[in-house]
Amino acid sequence: MRLSLVLFFLIWSVGKMMVPELTQKVFATFYAAEISPAVSIAIGALQTIIVLVFLTGQFKTLSYGGILD
């Protein structure tokens, strides 16, 4: 189950870094916030780190909370 969650969220987070325009559109549409491509890439990088920490099973309180929240 952990591996399937990691694969799902990893694809999602890498997509934020590869196509930051899509994340910008999501933020503009659902959150009424304008973000720059750099912020979108930073969000994707942070999310990727959380996913990889979740995969290794470290910092369970933080990584599980970051994945499931």
Protein described:
The protein has 69 residues and is an all-alpha fold. The protein has one domain. 83% of the residues lie in helices and 0% in strands. The radius of gyration is 13 Å and the shape is elongated. It comes from Hyella patelloides LEGE 07179.
Rg, rounded, reads 13 Å
Query: What structural class is derived from the secondary structure elements?
Result: mainly alpha
Report the sheet-strand fraction: under 5%
Our measurement of the CA-to-CA distance between the termini, rounded to an integer number of angstroms, reads: 17 Å
Main sheet makeup? none
Principal-axis shape equals elongated
Order of SSEs: HHHH
Low-confidence spans: none
Mean pLDDT: 85
Helix count equals 4
Q: Could you say how many structural domains there are in total?
A: 1
Report the strand count: 0
Share of helical residues? over 70%
Question: What are the key terms here?
Answer:
mainly alpha; DoxX protein; 69 residues
Topology (elements, then pairings):
Blueprint: H1 2-18, H2 20-30, H3 37-56, H4 60-68
Helix pairs in contact: 1-2, 1-3, 2-3, 3-4
Protein name: DoxX protein
Keywords: Membrane, Transmembrane, Transmembrane helix
Transmembrane segments: 35-55
Please summarize what this structure is.
The chain has 69 residues and is mainly alpha-helical. It is built from four helices and no strands.
